[in-house]
Amino acid sequence: MSEIVKGVLGGGWALLVGWIAPAAVNVVLAVWVLSGTHWLPGIGRLVRDVDVAGAGLAVAVLAGLMLAAVQTPLYRILEGYLGWPRSVASRAREGMRQRKLLLADRIAAVELVDRERAGRLDEAGAEALAAMRAHRAVRRHLVADANGGAVRRGLLHERLRRFPVDDDQVVATRLGNAIRRLEEYGYDRYRLDTQVFWYELTSVVEERNTKQVEQARTTVDFFVALLYGHLAVAGAALVAALVRPGPLPWAAAVGLPLLSYCWYRLAVVTTDEWAAAVRAMVNVGRAPFAAALGLTLPATLDEEREMWARQSRLARLSYKDFSAGGHRESARDVPQDPARAAAAQAADAVPADQ
Questions:
Q1: Cα-based torsion angle of the residue sequence 252, 253, 257, 262 in order, rounded to the nearest 10 degrees
Q2: Local mean pLDDT, 10-residue blocks, the chain (354 residues)
Q3: Domains of the chain by residue range
Q4: DSSP assignment of 129-190, as one string?
């Protein structure tokens, strides 16, 4: 038993909390909503005939394992990558871009108002503020934003940070953008493509960093699993209500989708912790990762960005073709570490017959 507990508290904790626990909640909801229908007998008879606790636990574990196994497509649906018609996805993506631009404009407008109140607004700033006040969407929020204090402004910055920095990386949903911003962080700052080097990076950073990322991801998993489970129970309740109308199935069919939306919004908010954990892992893990690859971090950020860009191309593209344009580079051009370059030159200086 102690070994089982150690396993659960170790690598299985994310599975237990992120997927099995919400599955158990939805199994209980399904039994409660569907009991008494032609699918399930009444609760009293169910308790007499079946070991409810054992059967419910088995179903919850099985459902949790199934959800965890297909978590990638489940996430992709919510992120706007999978199952979305192209026209719908394009409109949703453009809507998200406009939402991001509006948040940026609202923040800029508040800063201009502050400068105006302080008497430090120059002519260019005055023209920009006039344009902001003429913008219908910005004007609608400007007074409340300017008078809302530090808390309201902090919330605006928080909402803007849930979008990727690059406008071209904006996707069709809130959750997709919230996750995309943590996926692009390493590349945007250092040209370190964490999507390509994820397993290499997590294998060299401290265990504390990887646990922080896993724990933060588990919270998002919990709400995602709860959301899908609620939708499944709501679908079953709708069918049950159509077959044998009753107040409880109808209430579940209407209420659970609304509750699922709440879980979706909570999943978006909890990605903040996930993004912070990934940011910390990238910032402190670059040096040991470079050392593990036999490289050293260059003295300047520009040189480091070039180093990681070339290493990412080496891992992502074919060995002899490191750019989408077909430009071929020799293998010796890939490493950016001076020690490697010196070793390569020394090797070239050795006569062939030695």
A1: -20
A2: 46 87 93 69 50 74 93 96 95 97 96 94 94 94 93 95 96 97 96 94 94 96 97 93 85 96 97 97 96 93 94 81 47 43 46 42
A3: 2-80+188-285, 86-171, 292-348
A4: HHHHHHSHHHHHHHHHHHHSHHHHHHHHHHHHHTS-SSGGG--SSHHHHHHHHHHSHHHHHH
